[in-house]
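step=encode ok
step=design start
structure_in=
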C-alpha cells in the first residue's frame, strides 16, 4: 500500500533566493537520476526507479512500479531537462512545455490551505503521487520566483541539473572550471578550423 506524500509548503516561507529550497533540491534530484559523472542510471528499470522513489521519500519501498510508470518517469525527466536548458539560455522547445502541461493534467495536485501556510498535495499516491510532487515543486519554485535559477548545464555531454546561485543568474554551466572550460576549448578549436580554410 502506497502513501500520499504531501508537497512542501508553497511560496510562503522566506529565505534567500541564492539558496536552493527543498523544492529545488527535489526537482534537481529527479532530473539528475541519469547516469552522470560515474553515477548509475536511477531509471534503468522498474526496480531501480522504485528504489530511487523510496530513497527520495516520494513513496514507500513497496510501491508498485510498472513499465508504463518507468517510461513516464523518463519522459517527465527529459521534458524537465529541456526546460532547465532553456533557463540556461538554450532555445525553448515547445514540445517540452507541452509535455509538462500534459503531465500536470495526468498527475494533479490539490491546494491545502492553512492559517499561515499552504501546500500543493498530490491527489493520488504511488508513482502518480511522486510525479505530482515533482510538478508541485516546480510550481512552488515558479511562485517563489526562483524557477529560472534551476538550470541544466549547457555542456552537451553533461546537462547536469544545478541551482544557479549567482546574483545575476548568469551561470550556464554546472561548473565553469570544467564544463565551461570544455565548451571554451571546443569553441576555440571550431574557430581555428574555420579560419584555417579548406
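sequence_out=
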Amino acid at each position: 500500500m502506497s502513501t500520499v506524500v504531501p508537497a512542501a509548503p508553497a511560496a510562503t516561507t522566506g529565505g534567500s533566493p541564492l539558496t536552493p529550497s527543498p523544492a529545488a533540491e527535489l526537482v534537481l534530484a529527479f532530473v539528475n537520476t541519469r547516469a552522470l559523472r560515474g553515477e548509475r542510471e536511477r531509471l534503468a528499470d522498474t526496480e531501480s526507479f522504485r528504489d530511487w522513489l523510496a530513497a527520495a521519500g516520494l513513496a514507500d519501498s513497496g510501491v508498485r512500479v510498472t513499465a508504463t510508470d518507468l517510461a513516464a518517469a523518463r519522459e517527465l525527466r527529459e521534458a524537465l531537462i529541456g526546460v532547465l536548458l532553456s533557463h540556461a539560455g538554450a532555445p525553448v522547445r515547445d514540445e517540452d512545455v507541452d509535455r509538462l502541461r500534459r503531465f500536470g493534467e495526468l498527475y494533479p495536485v490539490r491546494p491545502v490551505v492553512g492559517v499561515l501556510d499552504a501546500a500543493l498535495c498530490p491527489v493520488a499516491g504511488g508513482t502518480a503521487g511522486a510525479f505530482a510532487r515533482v510538478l508541485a515543486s516546480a510550481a512552488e519554485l515558479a511562485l517563489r520566483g526562483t524557477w529560472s535559477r534551476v538550470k541544466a548545464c549547457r555542456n552537451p555531454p553533461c546537462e547536469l541539473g544545478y541551482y544557479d546561485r549567482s546574483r545575476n543568474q548568469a551561470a550556464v554551466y554546472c561548473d565553469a572550471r570544467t564544463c565551461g572550460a570544455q565548451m571554451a576549448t571546443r569553441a576555440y578549436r571550431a574557430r581555428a578550423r574555420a579560419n584555417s580554410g579548406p
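step=design ok
step=annotate ok -> The radius of gyration is 18 Å.
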